[in-house]
C-alpha cells in the first residue's frame, strides 16, 4: 500500500446559492519519496485539494465523501487531536506566502524551537541545535544570526528557505508545497526549487507540488495530475504527459506556452475561460473550449456535451476524455503519413 | 558615492550612436533617474546625532540613469526582477511619476516637464495597460461607462451615436460582446477584464502603448489569448509597445528588442534573437538559464549566490557585483557603462569589455 | 477561487435583480434584529414626519393648551384623562402629540447635522487623501483642532455669541438651524478621517492610475472614480453619526443649550419633565426618554449590521 492514498475525494462548499462542488472524485497515490505535481489554472481546485489532504479546509468547505489514507490511517475520519500529530510532524506544508506560516512577532529561532517542542520531548537546547542544522541544510548564510532575527528582516527568498527549513524540522514523510515559488523572482525561484528537490531526494521525502507552472512541474516531479474545474482530467508520469499530452486541455495548456510557438507568430491559445464551479457546463466540463468536440459533420459529439467522461487507461496515463482513442488514432495516422 | 558621480558624468556625454538612433525613435529616455524619499516630511527627517539636530534623508534609488530609445513600430521589452525599476520606468514615461532627473522626449518634444493640461494631447497618442485586471477597472462603473469616458474626454465634439459606435467597434476588436456593456467589471473573468482594459487603452486610437506586466496576473491559457490580442492590435494599428515583464519566455515571443534591467540600471540591450542566442551580461545569462523549460529534466541553471541588494543603499561599482560569478576588484569600484558590441548589442559589464567573458 | 457569476448569459441583470442577488439582501433576510430595527426606525420616522396628521393636538399652538389639565398620568394609571392617552406634561400639553413633534425635531437635527458633517467631512477627506502633501497636513491638523473642542464647548461658544449679538428670541427662532450647524461643525472630522483613510487605500489602485493616464482632471477622478468606491465606510459611519447627533442634540437641550421649551425636542422634553420626577409625574421624562433610547438603539443596531455586511473581510472567505 502506498504511503498516501486518496480515494474518490469529494469536497463541497456550502454557499448561499447551494452547495458548490469544489473537488469531484479525486484519486491518486504517493509512494515514499515520490514527487507528484498537481497542475491547474486558478479555479481548478488544486489548492483546495492540498488543504483537504490534511483536513484543513475552512468553513464553508467540507469533505463530502472519499478517503485520504496516510500510512494506514484515514485522515478525514480522524479526531482533531490525532490530526495534529500528523500535521507538521509527518506531513508538513509550504505555502505561497511565507508570512502565512511565520509569526511576525516571534524570532525565527523561537518559532522553530516551539514547533519542535510541540511534537517532541526535547530540551530547548537540543531543539535549537536541530533548528540550526536545518537552517544549514537550506544553505542560509550565517544561520546562527538568522535564528535571532524576525521574519520582516529577511528577503522573500530567504523567508521561503526558512519555511523549507521549518517544513523539514520534524523529518516529515511528505511535504505539500502550494505554489512555493510563485511570489518569487525567476532566479530566486530556480534556486529554491533546486534546493527543495535536492533535500527531498537526500532525505527520501515525498513531495506534492501544487503549481500552475508546467515548467517547474516538468523539472521537479516524477508523476503529475492535471486538474480542470475541480476534477483530475489526466494523470501519469510527468515526462510522458509533458512530451505526449493526451487530454485536449493538457495539450492546449502546453501548446499555449510562448516557448512552444515560433517567435513573432500567434500563440496557440485555448478559447474561452475556465467555467466557474457553481455553473459547470454539462457533460465534459471542458467541452465548450475543446477543439475536437465536433464530428465530421460539424455537429458536437453528444457524448462530450452530455456525459461526464470516465477515466480511460492509455499507456501509463489515465485520461478523462471520451475521445482519447480517436485522438490517439488520428495522431498515429499523421505520424505514419508524415 | 564617488563612483556614482562618475557614472553621472559619463552618462551626460551621449555616445554618437545614441544620437544616430534618436532620428527614428518615437520615445527617447535620457539619463532618467527617480528617487523616492523614505523619510516622510520635514519634521520626520530631523534626528539627533551627537548632540546636534541633523536632517536625515533616505531614498530608494528606483532608477539610476536609464537611457532607452523606442523605435516606431517596435515592441521594446524591459525585463528584470522585482525592484529593478522596470515599472518605475513605465510609470515615469506615462507621467504618473515625475522624474528626479533626466528627460523624456516623445516624437521629438519633451514631455516630462509638462502640466497635466499640456499633456492632454499626448494622452491620446500614448496609453497604458496595467498589471492587475482586478484593480484596473473601476468597480462602480459599467463597461460601457468605462469605455465611453476616454472618448468623451478626448473627442468633446463627438455626438452620442458616434461614441456608441466607437465603443462597440473597440469592444468587438478585443473580443468582448458589446451586449455586455451594461455589466460591471467584477462580473467578468480575469482574461475578459484585461481585454476590457486593453479596449479602454485602444479606444482613443493611440500609437504608443506602455504595457506594465499585462499578463502576469493571468492564467497560462488566458496569457496566450491576451498576448495574441496585443500582437494583433500591433499589426492592425501599427502600434509601438513598451512592454514591461519579468517573464523572459514571453519576451522571446513578443519583443523586437529587449532591455534587461537590474537594480535601476540597464545592463544589456539587444535584439531579441541576439539576446537569446548569445546573452553577454552575466545577469542576463543567469536569468535565461533560470527559465523553467519543459524539455530538460534537470535544472541546469547558473546558481547565483547572495541576495538582491536593496535600492536604498546601492552597492558601489557594478550593481550586480555581489551576485556575479565573474566579479573582480574593478567591478566593486567602477560603474560599468553601456558599450556597443560589434553586433549592435549594448552591454554594461567590465568583464565583457575586458574580454574575460 | 473564482465564484464570479457566469458572464456569458446575454442580458445584464436589472438593478432590482442585482439587489436581490446581493450579499446585503441575503444577510438582511436572515438577520431578524436588523429587520426589526429597520421596521422600528421606519415607523418612528413616518410617525414623526406625519405628526401633524397623527397628533390629536398641536402642541405649538398655545390656544390648544389648557394649564388645568397639566401633569395628567398615562392611560394605565388611575386618574388618566381619555383625551390624553400618554398623559400631559407640566404645561398641560398632550404627551403623545409633543413626543411625536419632539421626535420630528430630533430626527430633523440628527439628519441635518449628519448631512452637514458628511458634506464637509467627505470633501475635506477626499481632498486630503487624494491631493496629499501640504493640503493633507493642513486639513488633518484642522480636523485635530476641531476634535479637541468638544461639541458642548462649540455649542456654548456659538450659542453665547449668537444670543449676545442677535438676542435670545432670534436664537430660539432659528434653534434647529443653530443646532444643525453646531453639531455639524463639531463632528465633521469623523467623516474626514474615515474618508481619507479609504481614499488613501483606493488611490493606489490601478483604476485611478488608468483615469490619470486617460488625462482626467483631479476633480473628476476624485468625485467620479474615488468617491463612489469609498461609499461603504461612509454609509457605516453615517448610521453611527446620526445616532450620535441625536444624542448630542438631546444632551445640549437637556443642558438648556438646545431647543427651547416652546418647540421641544426629545432632549428638552426629558429636561422639562426632570423637575417633576420627584413629585411623582415620572412619565413626563420617562416616555420621551424611552422613545429616545429606542430610536438610538435601533439606529445603532442597524449600523452594526451594515458594518458587518460592508466589511468585506468578514464574508470573503
Automatic annotation (TrEMBL), chain A:
**GO terms assigned for molecular function:** ATP binding; ATP hydrolysis activity
Q: Which residue ranges run through the membrane?
A: none
Domain ABC transporter per the UniProt entry, residue ranges: 6-254
Q: What class of enzyme is it?
A: translocase
Give the UniProt entry's GO cellular component terms: plasma membrane
Report which reactions are catalysed by this protein.
a dipeptide(out) + ATP + H2O = a dipeptide(in) + ADP + phosphate + H(+)
Keywords in UniProt for this one? ATP-binding, Cell membrane, Membrane, Nucleotide-binding, Transport
Q: How does it sit in the membrane?
A: Peripheral membrane protein
Enzyme Commission code(s) on record: 7.4.2.9
Cellular localisation: Cell inner membrane
* Signal sequence bounds: none
Per the record, the coiled-coil ranges are none
Any one biological process term the GO annotation gives = transmembrane transport
Record's PROSITE patterns?
A: ABC_TRANSPORTER_1 (PS00211), ABC_TRANSPORTER_2 (PS50893)
PANTHER family, per database record: DIPEPTIDE TRANSPORT ATP-BINDING PROTEIN DPPD, OLIGOPEPTIDE TRANSPORT ATP-BINDING PROTEIN APPD
NCBIfam families from the UniProt entry: oligo_HPY
Family as reported in the entry's similarity comment: Belongs to the ABC transporter superfamily.
Q: What is this protein called?
A: ABC-type dipeptide transporter
Name the source organism: Vreelandella boliviensis LC1
Biological classification of the source: Bacteria, Pseudomonadati, Pseudomonadota, Gammaproteobacteria, Oceanospirillales
UniProtKB/TrEMBL annotation, chain B:
Q: Where is the ABC transporter domain?
A: 27-288
Q: Name one GO biological process term.
A: peptide transport
Q: Does the keyword Nucleus apply?
A: no
Gene Ontology molecular-function annotations: ATP binding; ATP hydrolysis activity
* Domain of life of the native organism: Bacteria
Q: Which UniProt keywords apply?
A: ATP-binding, Nucleotide-binding, Transport
Outline the segment boundaries, as ranges, of region: Disordered.
Answer: 1-23
Recorded hits in CDD domains, A to Z, give: ABC_NikE_OppD_transporters
Recorded hits in PANTHER family, A to Z, give: D,D-DIPEPTIDE TRANSPORT ATP-BINDING PROTEIN DDPF-RELATED, TRANSPORT ATP-BINDING PROTEIN
Q: Which family does it belong to?
A: Belongs to the ABC transporter superfamily.
- NCBIfam families reported for this sequence: oligo_HPY
Q: What is this protein called?
A: ABC transporter ATP-binding protein
Q: Which organism is it from?
A: Vreelandella boliviensis LC1
UniProtKB/TrEMBL annotation, chain C:
PROSITE patterns, per this entry? ABC_TM1
Which cellular component terms (GO) are annotated to the entry?
A: plasma membrane
The name this protein goes by in its record: Dipeptide transport system permease protein dppC
The protein's superkingdom reads Bacteria
Q: Which InterPro entries match?
A: BP-dependent_transpt_permease (IPR050366), MetI-like (IPR000515), MetI-like_sf (IPR035906), OppC_N (IPR025966)
Mind listing the UniProt keywords for this protein, alphabetically?
A: Cell membrane, Membrane, Transmembrane, Transmembrane helix, Transport
Its placement in the membrane is given as:
Multi-pass membrane protein
Where the record annotates domain ABC transmembrane type-1, the positions are 103-303
Do you know which SUPFAM superfamilies this protein is assigned to?
A: MetI-like
Q: Give the matching PANTHER family.
A: ABC TRANSPORTER PERMEASE PROTEIN, OLIGOPEPTIDE TRANSPORT SYSTEM PERMEASE PROTEIN APPC
Which species does the entry assign this protein to? Vreelandella boliviensis LC1
Q: Where in the cell is it found?
A: Cell membrane
Q: A single Pfam family, by name?
A: OppC_N
Keyword Flavoprotein recorded: no
Membrane-spanning regions, if any? 32-54, 105-130, 142-162, 226-247, 282-303
- UniProt keyword annotation of Nuclease present: no
Q: Which family does it belong to?
A: Belongs to the binding-protein-dependent transport system permease family.
Single GO BP term: transmembrane transport
